[in-house]
Amino acid sequence: MSGRGPARRGVLTAAAGLAAVAAAAPGAQAAERPGGGTGRSRWTTSWATAQTTPTATDTVASAGLTDGTCVTNVRLSAGGNVRLRYGHAFGTVPVLVGPVTAGGLPVTFGGQRQAWLAVGSSLTSDAVAGLRAPEAARLTVETKLPGPTGPLSFHRNTHASHSVDGERTTSVFLLTGVEVTGAHGPVVAVLGDSIAEGVGTPDDADLRWPDQLARRLPGSAVANLGISGNRLLLDDARFGPGGQARFDRDVLSLPGLRTVLVHLGVNDLQQPPSQTDPALVLAGYRQLVLRARNAGLRTVGATIAPFGGWTRWTPELETVRQRINAAVRTGRVFDAVVDFDAALRDPERPSLMLPAYDSGDGLHPNPSGHAALAAAVDRRHLL
Predict the structure, then answer these.
(1) 3-state secondary structure at position 382
(2) CB-based contact 369:199 (threshold 8 Å)
(3) Read out DSSP for 181-202?
(4) Whole-angstrom distance, CA of residue 68 vs CA of residue 341
């Protein structure tokens, strides 16, 4: 897809409105200093998405853009001063990024309107002059890509509406995060699969359970790193590197992070080849915990929710799920546990979700189910 994109229309909307902030260089430098007494950055990721490699069916991402314009609409969690982060984890050639606007205001990179994004690298902008976002604000980011870009690293389906050269898409290209300075609650990354990504919720409704968790915890910064189909142990050409393979790039690279919530495992069981050895899944969890602790992070592990109504469920896989969950509940795998199984299951038929929570496929919860998942997370485990 090529050609001139739509006119600039980046608008930041929220009930609280916008407040102007000083944008002098000394202020921008101050925002980079570690905050508080923890030695952590003042910047935290208020919105995020994890990237995969495009396949042949992902026509825009696989072909790339020339003189293209990507408009991305994001729902922030925490607010504050704003900067952007781009990534090209699976690129083949460097990409020239810019000009860019956020909330209709110009974005710079080291004072320049354009910057090169290297293959396999990330690119962080300056603080956006004049922009201070309220909590839960909707932010529009417009990114021009002069190109030719080559294949674009992207997130296939964010369950939100964006556009490429004026045509609607639910994919996000190159943009991986919106970082802010105003978090005053838990700072959490959700390493998840399609349930965290939002399957089972309507587009543009912001009813994914990480969204609902952020609304439960004022001032929190929640980075949703869910990828549909993603596994803990194995990589997949379409569903991306597994949780172990992407952990350093997607989680440990985030600024100001305090806690990682691991919500992976069901795809290891139900996607071919099925993992039927609970010990291997538990070993994968323990490796993530070790790497998180080495980085000074707390880990919260989610039990695997029931999927008895799903097409690939079998009694054997149910036994594996129950054994994994029993080990996780002991508290000897993660630093804390959130029991998503208990939050969703039908007490009369524990291999199934409650009908009131089922989106209809037996695996993905509906918005009410996502609300139950968000409610199951104990704030005390995130601090």
Answers:
(1) helix
(2) no
(3) S---S-EEEEEE-HHHHTTTS-
(4) 44
**Residue 23: how many other CB atoms lie within 10 Å:** 16
For residues 256 and 78, the answer to whether their CB atoms sit within 8 Å is: no
Answer yes or no: are the C-beta atoms of 99 and 113 closer than 8 Å: yes
What's the pTM value of the predicted model, to 2 decimals? 0.89
Residue 221 near residue 259 (C-beta atoms within 8 A): no
Q: Whose CA is closest to 312, among 273, 340, 369, 286? A: 273
Which pLDDT belongs to residue 383?
A: 84
Per the model's pLDDT, the better-predicted residue between 20 and 299 turns out to be 299
**Three-class DSSP category at 30:** helix
In this predicted structure, what is the pLDDT of residue 26?
31
Question: How far is 232 from 347, CA to CA, in rounded Å?
Answer: 27
> At what angle are helices 209-216 and 367-376 packed, to 10 degrees?
50
Give the pair of three-digit tokens for residue 335.
Answer: 């630093």
Residue 30 has pLDDT above 90, yes or no: no
Rounded Cα gap, residues 159 and 75, in angstroms: 12
Residue 52 is classified by DSSP as: B
Q: What integer is the mean pLDDT of 298-324?
A: 98
36 Cβ partners below 8 Å, 6+ apart?
none
| pLDDT the model gives residue 40 | 58
Count of residues making up the chain? 383
Read off the amino acid at residue 135: E
Closest among 70, 74, 49 to 60, alpha carbons compared: 70
DSSP 3-state percent helix, strand, coil across the chain (nearest 5): 25, 25, 50
What phi and psi, each to the nearest 5 degrees, are found at residue 372? -65, -40
8 A C-beta contact, residue 197 and residue 208: yes
